[in-house]
Amino acid sequence: MRRDVLxxxxxxxxxxxxxxxxxxxxLVKDINVLLxxxxxxxxxxxxxxxxxxxxxxxPSAIVRNELEKMQAAGQPVQQSIDALDRLDAQxxxxxxxxRADGGNAAMHTFTDLDTSLGRFTRAFAAMARNDGKxxxxxxxxxLRVRMDSSDFDEIIGNLLxxxxxxxxxxxxxxxxxxxxxxxxxxxxDGDGIPEDDYGSATLSGQRLDTxxxxxxxxxxxxxxxxxxxGGKIQLSVSDMFKGLHVRIHLKHTGV
Length: 255
Fold this sequence. Notes:
Blueprint lengths: L1 H7 L16 H48 L5 H24 L9 E2 H18 L3 E5 L5 E2 L3 H18 L3 E9 L2 E8 L9 H6 L14 H11 L3 E6 L6 E8 L4
Parallel strand pairs: 2-4
Antiparallel strand pairs: 1-3, 4-5, 5-7, 6-7
Helix pairs in contact: 2-3, 3-7, 4-5, 5-7
Enzyme class: transferase
EC number: 2.7.13.3
Keywords: Kinase, Membrane, Phosphoprotein, Transferase, Transmembrane, Transmembrane helix
C-alpha cells in the first residue's frame, strides 16, 4: 500500500480498495479522499499564482512603456527602468518557486531533452553567430528528466543567456546520464565567477558585475527550480574553457 500511495503522488488515479485485504479497505477509501483533496489544493494554488502573475504583468508593461517614452524624450529615467527590471525578475523568481512548490515537482511530469535542448541549441547557436561566438553541443539522444518542460526551459534559457552575455567567444552545452540523474552542463570562456561568490550567485540573486545589463537573478531562479525537483546546481571552473561551468543535476525519469 505504501508503494502504491507513493506512486499516486506522481500520477492521477486512486487506489483500488478491492486490491487489498478487506480489513484495510476503509483506510484505502480514506487515502483516496486525501489524495483527491491534495490534488484540488495543488491545482487551486497553481491557478491562483497564474492569475496573480497575469494581473501584475499588465500594469508592469504599462509602466515600462511610459518609462521608455520618457527616456526617448530625453528624461533621465534609467534608474527607474533598472528598478522595474529587478522587480519583474524578483516576481518571476517568486512565481517560478510558487509554480514548482505548488505541485509540479511531485506530479508525473518529464522533459524530453532531445526536444528542449534541440530547440535551445538552434536558437542560441544563431544568436551566438550574430555576436561572433560559437555554441557547441554534446547531447546524447533519449535523455529525459523529471521536471516540467516550462520549468526546465526557464533554467536552460537563463543559463544560456548568461553564457552568451559573458563569454568571449565559446559556449558549450552538454548532457550525460549519471546513475539515476542527468547532468546538463553549460560552460563558457568568459572570466567566470570567483569561487567565494558562488553562494551569492545562486542564492541571493546579487549582481556580481554591473558592467552589463541584467538583474543578477538568472542563477538564483535556476537554483530554486532545480531544488524544487530534488536536483541542484553547482558552479565551478570549466576544464574546457577555464570560464564558468554550471552543472544542473536533475533526476532521470527512469524511462
